[in-house]
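Protein: Peptide ABC transporter permease
Species: Ramlibacter tataouinensis
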Amino acid sequence: MSGPIPVSNSIEATLKAPAPAPAPAAAPVPPASQSPAARAWRRFRRNRLGFVSLVLFSLLVVLSLFAELISNDQPLLVRYQGKFFFPMAQAYSEQDFGGDFPTPADYLDPDLRKRLTSNGNWVIHTLNPYGPNTLAYHSSYPFPSAPSRENLLGTDERGRDMLAQLLYGFRLSVLFGLVLTAIGVVIGVITGAIQGFFGGRTDLAFQRIIEIWNSMPELYLLIIFSSIFAPSVALLVILLSLFGWIGLSDYVRAEFLRNRQMDYVKAARALGVGNGHIMWRHILPNSMTPVVTFLPFRMSAAILALTSLDFLGLGVPPGTPSLGELLSQGKQNIDAWWISIETFAVLVITLLLLTFMGDALRDALDPRKADL
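Structure follows.
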């Protein structure tokens, strides 16, 4: 009869037993693949100068869109004799605020301002209490006046506040550039796609027409039409749109000529897909790189064109806030240095931001740039 197993032998057996195999490590999860647009956006954000330029430019555009709430001679809210008035939504006369005449209320008039700020009455003005066409009648300085507490950036030769002029002029320039760029992109993409996709005689005919059209003197046409029709922003958009699409059309044509030879286009044709569906569904999405890269530079060209025409007196109607008109005033009033310097600074900053954005877009959409 065997006796009990010694404790020392059991411990040695336990120590000599093989250790349990470690659990297999989990396979690494591959990163989710990103779309080309997401990769381009990541590369664009990596370009700090371009991304900061986009943020600043967007902020300036948003502020200019709400210019009436930032710089306006009409107060935001008035409380007079226990009643509330909203001058931005409804026009009031001086008689509504204790005046003697039924003329529109001038909220910058010292007498009216005194009535609106005494006896429990109060008024809330915008940050800059001047509109784009407000004349500083009550200024204590001759026009054009240098920057002061009344007018932070001074006034122009007509007595209009420079801050209001720059704010509204910047908005006009940006909106003009956006509209002109949108029209040029639509026409340029359509004409370039037709030339590049069909090629042959169609391409040859379009090229000859574009050469003839591009040789027409654009400035002379603007001068002729400006003498016939009343100057307006719509007229400028129409005339400049007639020539603003040619540059983009060449880029789109080259992309379509290259992409129409790709295998996916041949496969679509073999399946019986129509030409229109191939152009807009298959080739166009793969030809948008030059279009997107072209946008900031096209906007810069449109803003410069508007400024140049306004400087020559061929632009927007007189009295419309415009950077070009302010530059013309600065040339005529050399002593009023603030007019030229402030306008030039706004124009240069706008063009620099657009240029930095264009460079960043070009690098982000370049397929040769590897993701780091």
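Remarks: The first helix runs from residue 7 to 16.
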